Amino acid sequence: MSTRRGRHALAAIGLLVATALAVTGCTAGASPKPTASSSTAAARADATLRLGLAAAPANLDFTSTGGAAIFQALLGNVYEGLLRLDQDGKVVPLLATGYTVSRDGLTYDFTLREGVKFSNGSPFDAAAVKFSLERVKTWKANTPGNLAALDHVEVVSPTEAKVVLTKPDATVPFWLAGPLGAMFSPDAVDSLATKAVGTGPFTVASYQTGVKLVLTRNDAYWGAKALVKQVDLDYFADASAAANAMRSGGVDALYQAEAYDQLASFKADPRFTVTAGSSQAVVVLSMNEANPALADVRVRQAISHAIDKKAVVAAATDPYFVRSDEPYPYDPAAAKQLLADAGVTGLNLTFTVPNRPYAQAISQVVQSDLAAVGITATLQTQEFPAVWVDKTLTQHQFDLTVVNHVEPRNVTNYGNPSYYWSYSNPAVGKDFAAAKAATDEDSYITHMTDAVQAIIKDAAGVWLYNPPNVVVATAAVHGMPTNDLGVGIGLAGVSVTG
Amino acid sequence: MLLTVLRRLGVFALTALVASVVVFVLLAVLPGDPARAQLGLDATPDQVAALRHQLGLDRSLPAQYVHWLGQLATGSLGISYSTRAPVGPEVLNAMQVSLLLVLAGMVVAALIALPTGLLAAVRQGRADGAALSAATQVGISVPSFLAGLLLVTVFAVRLHWLPSGGWVAPVDGVGGFLRHLVLPALALGLVRGAILSRYLRSALLDVQREDFMRTARAKGMTRWQALRRHGLRNALVPVVTVTGVELAGLLVGAVVIETVFVIPGLGSLLLRSVANRDLVEVQAVVMVVVLLVLALNLLVDLVYVLVDPRLRRAR
Questions:
Q1: What does the mean pLDDT of chain B come to?
Q2: Lowest CB count within 10 Å: A70, B156, B188, B241, which one?
Q3: Binning pLDDT at 50, 70 and 90, where does residue B311 land?
Q4: Does A341 touch chain B (CB under 8 A)?
């Protein structure tokens, strides 16, 4: 397998159960690359980019507060790591100039970029790397366990840091390119919730909780300076309020636009461009295997066959986003046969549904599809996140549920038997462990693929669709990142013309 | 007068205490864990337990309540679970925003109610009076959020005259402040104005049947003059009563309007802190709202005295 193809496969696995779930027809005027600045109008260096987003950060500290909103705004803009993900999901150096991995996979030698300073004036050096990475153990949120293999960091010289692992872990570079790899100034972590100090191209000017986060260009930045002077991140709890702001000129762009019903009218309007890039998210209908009926693989396969995924996608998002290969194609007859084989009749299931539009829409389709094969699903709407997380995720009080899983590489949750769906297949756990311990890419991919194939065969979930990352922008905005990789929205390369 | 003030303060303290207990119990009964809400979907049970301990959520409910009361006694509204900052400044800021919005809504309502109510009363029985009356009936039936959406669609999305939402503090520019205030104030004030207009009309019609009005007309005043000199002031007493009741409704209406127009007032803050199960912040907002409603009631009582000279001697 050539390296290029290897990366391709790696990226594919990165999208949860990717072999089962390739979104092929993202034809919503999309190109996966950032929009080219072909316009002749000059970008203004003193411009302000006003970007509309949905979920707002609770505070500025992603080491102690969950949710993607915080690092989405700050990573790559205010904070930077040794490595980063490019728009194709490839790990590339950022504050490191490069690294080498020892043959046993236990040590990573990083050489660091020189002359980099934090926005408070402190130098970025190997001591900061040691401080930041060894501090991950104390993080309270954003899956510090993904870097559990990290033992300690040795300061070889100010520009050389040696990261030492307790056991080989092929996923370390990927996690270092995300929030866990962010570099903090050792003298500026006392009030992370309100003050963000990083090495990035922007600094935080102000944050009005839940309303507006203002970033200003860091003119002392070590690399290419940001193309706009200021970025206003405006948070809209209501998708139609966001769409109205876009139409009335209140914002220049919407990132992860949720008002799917409005996309057609944005596309029809020549003032706007609409792009649908990829995201790390997957919408999953999960079946609680603590329920004896659902512990039978035939019943799970029957449910998988019973659901018309095309109808689900049309109901929940937009008929534009159609997907292709399907491990369990829509086939009610096959579903009935499987249920008969399993000897299951008159199955009654409690279906907990988050009170979000996508989930509500999906639940209606699923309920009627299941009724058609003789399964009664009782819908129970739950406030999301508070109630759903409590009742369904934590206390496992459900038979069926549906949720949009946004965490990158979360497929490994199928290796955790105590996760909310109670799926357990020891072979899958072994494959994930072997993949993590792999010291070369081919072996990593082989083990991951084996695990994913087993999960699909077991029908551990019904993977409905990958939500697209929809970006709506005015013609004056150039270079908006289109793919959401589960890290920050890199805004330094975005310009505003005219 | 002093006794009245003391009694009012006592009522306030009692109301606030009862409200705080009710909110505390309601949020405790409500499913959803504040620690979980902060840490997100992928937090481990150990992490959640550690944060619960840190926030003091593992103590008994009465103990948590007493701790909160103790904090309040020292003048602190507490530290928010989610922002990790004192909630006092945030709540005060949101309160100012909501008050400005309610005030602007009230001004709009008065500007609508006074002329339309007067005209509808004077022209009662004629075509234009009936038309006005019908128009206010329609105004009452339009929910304020719908009015808000319609205003946004017409004036922001289609005509681009005004912003579709957001908020600019007066200190950051009076022009921007006013531009952002117009649509939400209209949405809030239209319905209230229609309601008040109808009350004013019927109050004026009642007044016209009074003896002193007939006397005024007998002295040679026109119907209009009599209304202006003698009718309006007497008709205002019931209108002020209604306004007092309506003010609480205006605050509640502001919650909806804040959502439609993305305004960072008490309503938005309350919704956000309930979603985060941020008990400390919810309590603070509830305290402030209770205080506001009681203060508004006091204000209404004072206005009575201004409108009706007889009440001045009675006290």
A1: 82
A2: B241
A3: low
A4: no
